[in-house]
Design a protein that fits this description.
The complex is a heterodimer.
Chain A lengths: L1 E10 L2 E11 L6 E5 L4 H4 L1 H11 L8 E7 L11 H11 L13 E3 L2 E2 L5 E2 L4 H8 L6 E5 L13 E5 L2 H9 L32 H13 L3 E4 L6 H7 L9 H14 L14 E2 L7 H5 E2 L4 E2 L1 H4 L4 E5 L6 H5 L2 H6 L1 E6 L2 E6 L3 E6 L18 H9 L3 H5 L3 E4 L21 H18 L13 H7 L4 H14 L3 H17 L7 H9 L5
Parallel strand pairs in A: 3-4, 5-8, 8-9, 10-17, 10-18, 11-14, 14-17
Antiparallel strand pairs in A: 1-2, 2-4, 6-7, 12-13, 15-16
Helix pairs in contact in A: 2-3, 6-15, 17-19, 18-19
Chain B lengths: L1 H21 L3 E9 L2 E9 L2 E11 L12 H15 L6 E10 L5 E7 L4
Parallel strand pairs in B: 3-4
Antiparallel strand pairs in B: 1-2, 2-3, 4-5
Classes of the chains: A alpha/beta, B alpha+beta.
Amino acid sequence: MLVKINSVAHIGLETVPVDVEVDVASAGFPGFTIVGLASKAVEEARERVKTAIINSGFDFPPKKITVNLAPADLPKDGAAYDLPIAAGVLIASGQLVLPPDAHSKMFFYGELSLDGTLRPTRGILLLALFAKRTSGATIFVPSPSAAEATVVSKITVLPVTMLADLVRHINGTKKIPALPHTKYKISEDEGSIDFDLKEIAGQEQAKRALIIAAAGGHNVLMWGPPGTGKTMLARALPGILPPLTDAEALEVTRIFSISGLLPSGVALIKKRSFRSPHHGVSAAGVIGGGTNPLPGEVSLAHLGVLFLDEMPEFPRNVLESLRQPMEDGTVEIVRVAGHVRYPASFTLIAAINPCPCGYLGHPRRECKCTERQIAKYRHRISGPILDRIDLTVLVAPVEVEKLSITKEYSGGSLTSKEAKAAVVRARAIQSKRFAGTHMYTNSQMRNREVKQYCRLTPEAENFLKMAAEKYDFSARSYMRLIKVARTIADLADQTSILPVHMAEAIQYKQLV
Amino acid sequence: MKTFNRSTGRAAEAIATRALQEKGYSILERNFSNRFGEIDIIAKDKNTLVFVEVKAKTGIEYGIPEEMINPGKLQRIRNMAMVYLNGKSLPCRIDVVAIVLGTNNEVLRLTHYENVT
């Protein structure tokens, strides 16, 4: 008997339907073959399915079993076909009876373990989003990862713990209760913050730059001698980032779902990601890669922050690979197996020392580097990358009196809570501005939107022209300056960009 | 144990031979062997030459006899058949006879699979 089971395959963030055809022949020498460009993991489903069926107390038919994964020319990877194959074998051998044409609305997806329990499987959210297109769809997914499917409305999510439970559910002896739909709501308290802005002594300019970056999604370069708080400042950034909105959360969760990084039981990611890869990272690790390309750090930092500490230590090819995502907000990975596009709209925060020894320009310590060493060090970060950085701040050595641990420092510094409130207000203005588009922040504007939304007063425009001529800004820098000024104006709750906003934006555009 | 397995095998081959004869096959050879291996039975079904592998198991606690036939074993039979044909081109096929025996060597099940390759 031949049965057809619905399942899916993922190509990047795209989901395509896969028909799992299982035939249990009445004649022929017993055997179990899987065809349809199955990878090693899918091939091995044979042994898992066979053992899981037997250990769940069912019979594995000693017959000629052929499984076809259609479309035949699409490479299939991963262990998610275990459950559809097992269900197919049980139905085709008459041990599980489905009402006729019930399976057209049923989707099976999940990895089996040898004892018949289902293991967490990646990509459940994408399956749920795909199943939504079929009205009245039911998805059978492993219970450890079922939560991520519940954010999708209008589908029935059935968490399966054991293969035997699935059989009991379909035979009607013991129903599996469907998981309730999870409504997205922003929780005010998102856990503790690593560092509060108030805890960091001095560095008011850097803090201001981080607030602007958090509000508008601009890139920041912090430079200064070792031990002045660059890393600490970056670590304080997650504490002032606004929570993800409904649509943003779904985008980020999709990426985490396909990477298999979603913790068990978590339905949606609500916190912006803060990724800080070590400088030993490979280019594939940053932009994404593999034979079936998975998202890299830039995509995991989507709508969040990518922090590169000690930026000049990163391999050149890794830094240069950031150019495309920094400009387009997406990254395109091409491999033999196919061509995948992942979103990668992140805020880059980079920290660098002024020279190899770190003390160039230090008020009290002497720099021991030669001219050549310094030139070589600076050379590691190319012009095109620096051109994409909107805010450059010097993180200077801290004065000793500000470091006192007994006396509470009262430099008029904002707390992270206050800063976050300002950021959230500025973001609210932006989300109103970009309602109905795919953009969320000022930094994502293209030239057309810059012209549409950034009204400069004549004085501000004049000021920008003068600065552009004096410092020889590139066309890209020119546009980026306007975007930063837009964010500064949003923070000040001004509809048009005034010279004071422009001046502040230009002040951060210094060349290192 | 080894002797026991061998005697079981011999008994099973005799059972299989009888079964094939009842089906109207004529038996040409039994235990055709050289240094590459052995073909349990070579028979003729009408005009087709049939190479038969007999696989017997006492009880199925350790798996069914069909599971013991793997691609390697089939390849060995194919090679042996090549030797037997000695360059001649005749219609031929490979069959498997799977037998499950009880503790007293009584036949619990006998299944004949035609053309398994």
